[in-house]
């Protein structure tokens, strides 16, 4: 395999259920070592897309190459190079966390150390607990642990941190960053825009089965959507103005009003940009 070949190449991917197109002609590439986020509202087609890439779902059309192979013809060797955390699993069962991890580790040629993985997902204290006795968030951590135990080159994470408390999410981010530093290619779908902004190099936004934007996280959306907003209050009430030169506006306000009340300079977050993007698609569809 040459290093310049993309880890994933998707060309005009389509998935239909009867007359309904869940994925309606999507194309993108993901480079080796990249952390790539797939964003979009519920029902956009994110899980359908990643499940096709994982070899879990048949596609209706288009071409897909994942680590140089078509997931339709997945071999055991190919599967061993890929880690998967599905949107819905919630491992349950009578075995303990350590037993489950040890069992999965034995299936791979070059697994990670079980204790290291337990620590990375914050389950050291639960190693001897039966999985069925864990909370929902803890079971989700088991899913993540099982996704990474085989030391995958490519890791798919479909809403991995849903149900995590804030501390667990921070821990999980550290894990993802360390996997990324080791060179793992990561495909992440998430509802948390801050998570995508923290972790990913590039992101794609999909809505209604179509790709509406793709690029580095800090370049998504229109230039206009990323222009800072200045807010302040005076005798007439609240004001808000978008300007590429917020310092100049603030200086003018200070000269005219003294210290403006409730002064704020806001740089639109990925969430703001994303909401504007998705709203523009919904307007066209309406
Ligand atoms: N097996 C199925 N049969 C019919 N429709 C489905 C099936 N699976 C998914 N869909 C539909 O496809 C669309 C995309 O679903 P999905 O990929 O799960 O969205 P996302 O992960 O972005 O929330 C949704 O409208 C969903 O209802
Ligand atoms: Mg989904």
Automatic annotation (TrEMBL):
It is found in: Cell membrane. It is a peripheral membrane protein. Its main location: membrane. SUPFAM superfamilies: P-loop containing nucleoside triphosphate hydrolases. This is ABC transporter ATP-binding protein. GO terms for molecular function: ATP binding. Keywords: Antibiotic resistance, ATP-binding, Nucleotide-binding, Transport. It comes from Herbiconiux daphne. Residues 8-233 form the ABC transporter domain. It comes from the Bacteria. SMART domains: AAA.
């Amino acid at each position: 395999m040459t290093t310049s070949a993309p880890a994933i190449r998707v060309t005009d991917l389509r998935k239909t259920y009867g007359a309904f197109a869940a994925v309606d002609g999507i194309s993108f590439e993901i480079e080796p070592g990249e952390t790539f986020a797939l964003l979009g509202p519920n029902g956009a087609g994110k899980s359908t897309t990643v499940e096709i890439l994982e070899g879990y779902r048949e596609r209706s059309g288009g071409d897909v190459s994942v680590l140089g192979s078509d997931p339709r013809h997945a071999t055991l060797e190919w599967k061993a190079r890929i880690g998967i955390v599905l949107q819905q699993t919630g491992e349950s069962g009578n075995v303990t966390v350590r037993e489950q991890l040890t069992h999965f580790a034995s299936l791979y040629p070059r697994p990670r150390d079980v204790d290291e993985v337990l620590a990375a997902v914050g389950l050291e204290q639960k190693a001897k607990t039966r999985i069925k006795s864990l909370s929902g968030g803890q079971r989700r951590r088991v899913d993540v642990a099982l996704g990474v135990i085989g030391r995958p080159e490519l890791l798919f994470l479909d809403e991995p941190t849903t149900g995590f408390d804030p501390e667990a999410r921070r821990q999980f981010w550290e894990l993802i960053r360390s996997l990324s530093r080791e060179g793992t290619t990561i495909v992440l779908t998430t509802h948390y825009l801050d998570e995508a902004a923290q972790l990913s190099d590039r992101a794609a936004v999909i809505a209604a089965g179509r790709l509406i934007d793709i690029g580095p996280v800090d370049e998504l959306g229109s230039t206009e959507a990323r222009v800072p907003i200045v807010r302040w209050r005076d005798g007439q009430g609240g004001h808000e103005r978008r300007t590429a030169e917020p310092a100049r506006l603030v200086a003018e306000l200070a000269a005219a009003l003294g210290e403006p009340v409730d002064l704020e300079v806001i740089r639109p977050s990925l969430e703001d940009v994303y909401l504007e993007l998705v709203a523009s698609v919904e307007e066209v569809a309406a």
